[in-house]
Every structure is written in structure tokens, then in C-alpha cells.
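Re-running Cysteine--tRNA ligase to confirm reproducibility after the cluster update. Everything else is unchanged from the original entry.
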Amino acid sequence: MPLRLYDTWTRTVREFTPIHPDHVGLYCCGPTVYDHAHIGNLRTYVFEDVLRRALVLNGYNVRHVVNITDVGHLVSDADEGEDKMEKGSRRTGESAWAIAERYTAAFMNDWRALNLLEPALWCRATDHIAEQIDFIAELERNGFTYRTADGVYFDTSRQDDYGYLARLDVAGLQAGKRVAPGEKQRATDFALWKFSPPGATRQMEWDSPWGRGFPGWHIECSAMSAKYLSPWFDIHCGGEDHIPVHHSNEIAQTQARYGTRLANFWMHGHFLLLDAGKMSKSGGDFLRLQTLSERGNDPLAYRYLCLSAHYRSSLRFSEAALDAAQAALDRLRRSYARWPQGGKPDAASVARFKAEVDHDLNLPRALAVLWDVVRSDLPPATRRASVDCFDVVLGLGLADWKDVDTPELPAEIAALADQRERARAAKQWSEADRLRDVMTAAGWLVEDSAGGQVLRLRDQTE
Ligand code: AMP
Ligand code: ZN
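Result of re-run:
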């Protein structure tokens, strides 16, 4: 079955076919590095990583580009307020450049801890100022811009289908919003270049044909995706909040310069929610991956939690849900570690798993296939080889996991444990008890838990 993905542009699940035979271009909007990433942001990157792995499973060579926003993202999406970087600099007392460095490094640590595949390219907005200026100059030549006292703006009235991605009610938006005279002309227009405030120097500013200042937030993604993937590539991703503003504006710009809507597929991850509502970085009240580690959870348990919900539904975070994900992951790891290598995957299970992945990344159902295999009576080596295939997409790093708490099981005990698990599955209780006695006599205590049996070496004093 071919890979089918939901496209926000068409609002349908449709078959994915690559534009170029040799690679798939994937552009994902990356972090704004004025603070740590919160686990909501990270949910979006886990979704994008699973998408990339699903493409690899389908035999595609993926060119994955992620940007780092280190300038120009203002506190309000309506082009108002301070640059988040300068605000972050005031908060920490460090320079905007220093916090960009620090939070980029912290972000990379989270990235690795979640076992996210390294992109082909990370690109920073501040390393691409010339490309952004060129882009704006071209928009100006094509008649899509105007100047105000505080910057150069994109004129959204020049495009009949502005906001189509979000199905924006443009007329309603214009009527409902007051726009300050002398500033932008319409509520939907947006900044391409902002001037440094008169008489003041910003930490991050550059000369341009229009005056000293800095780029608006959206232009970086149009400029860098065109440079590294071409103006027409396969898939563009981000969180659902990007649909009405950031991605609508990227499309407007690229349409105005190149006549394309950037990507054939637009895909969006839905939000992670807290009981209190939406988790937001600028609210200052957010959970980091490190916060989860400090309470004893493995970052990969958070990854497992993300996999347990479909990327197009909201996921409400709770400590109980995270603990359940941790317990499931621990169970999976312990089972996996007991199974010997050298088997062949079970073709039917692998096909079932792939069918779920190919159906718009239905990871909750793919996980159900995984658990069917774990609990099946397939030979242990077959189960291990099958789970290895699944982990190409799940990215739980099962083969790399080392159980530091449990001593390694000798092969004969592992075989007995497996035999007993199958006896239990077949409800052959007396056989299961007999096998437990054999293992106990050999020095291994067997405890039955909801997730299967747990073995530990008997303390000699017991
Ligand atoms: P930012 O660093 O704020 O530019 O956001 C980075 C990514 O996280 C973007 O793709 C956002 O759409 C996404 N994002 C922001 N908040 C959440 C959330 N609560 N849940 C999931 N994704 C989010
Ligand atoms: Zn972007």
C-alpha cells in the first residue's frame, strides 16, 4: 500500500508521490531560540521525525532541512511588540547572540535525547540575511510591498487566495481589526523588514536597501527553503499554530516571487495541552524534557507517549500518562532484551505495521501491532527481528538499550522464561508453575506483572 498523508492545503488524506525521483524534500520550521524548548514544541519534532522515518520505510531518500529562528520573531504574530530574542536577552542579562548559542545547544541536546534523526541541514536565520534581503527586493520589484514608518510590508490584497491554507476569512479579519494609521494597511499584511527603532541600536541589525533593521519572521523560511530545497518541494511541516499566520505568509511570499506554494504537502502536528490549557513558551510556565528527566522519566518515555496519540489529535499531558508510557517502554525493553538475535521478521506483522504507518502515520495502531507481536507465540528471535523493523519508525532505540538493573539472563533461563510466557498465554497454569519452579531452583525469582514476567537473581541470603 502506498504512503498516504493528510495535507492541510487540500484538507484530505492523499497518496504521497515525490516530486523528484531521487529524494524527498522536507522542510520543518524549527525553534525560536530565546528560551528552552518545552515538551509541546518537542511533540511537533517527534511527529516530524516519525514522518521522516515513515518516508525512509517507504524507500525514500529524505533531504530534511530545519531552520533555527534567531532573529525577527516578534512577541505578537501581528508584527507588534519586541523581538523575542532581544526580550530573552533582557530576561537573562546575556546578549541576544549568546542566548541564541546557548538555547540552540540546549535544543540539540533535547533533539538527541529524543532519538530524533539529524537533519541534512540546520540553517540559521542570521546566516541568511543576504538571501532574505534578495527575496524582499524581488517582492518589491514584483509590486507586492509597501513601506511604512517602521518597515517594509507585504501587501496581501495583491493575492486573491491569500490565506487559503487556513481558509482565512480575510474580509472578516480586515473588518474586525483596527490598524494604526501610518503602519501596515491591512490586518493580514505582514512585515518583511523592520527598521531599527529611531535613535536606538538593536543587538541584531543589518543594513538593507530600505534602511538599517532586521528581517520579519516569515521571510527566513521562504528564503532558506527555496535555497536548500528549491521553491517547489515535497513536504513542509510545523505545529498547527503556524497554519493561519506563519505558513500562510510563507506561501504568500513564495507565491509572489516564484508562483509556487512551496510544498506539495503541508503537514501540521496538533498541540500538546496541559490541564491548564495550551503550553506556550512565552508564558514562561512550561515543562522541559529535563524537568521530566529530573522526575525520573526517560526522554524516550516521552517519545513513547507522543507515539501513543495520533499527530492530528491534541494530546493532554499528565504525569500519570507519562508514567504509563514509561511502564510500557520498560516492559517492551525487558521483553526485547530477552529475545535472541538472528531471526527473520514475521512478514505478516511487518505488513500490518507498515499499513498503519502508511495510513497517515497511525502510530497508535502501529503500536497495537507491536504489542500483538510482543505477546504472540511467535518464536522469540522472530519477535525480536519484527520489533527491529518497527523500531525503524518508532525510534525507541531498543537495540541500544542496556538494562543496568537486571543482570544478563543466561540463554537457558531466557529459553525457560519464554516457554513459560507462552504457557501463560495459553492459560496452561500448571506448566507455567512447573517452569517457574525450575527457574527458581536455578537461582532466578520470577514475578508476574501486568506487563509480563520479571526475573531477578535470587539474593543468596533469601
Ligand atoms: P517555536 O520555538 O515557538 O517557534 O515553536 C517550535 C515548534 O513548536 C513550532 O512548529 C510550533 O508550531 C510548535 N509548537 C508550539 N507550541 C506547541 C505545543 N503546545 N504543542 C505542539 N507543538 C507546539
Ligand atoms: Zn517557518
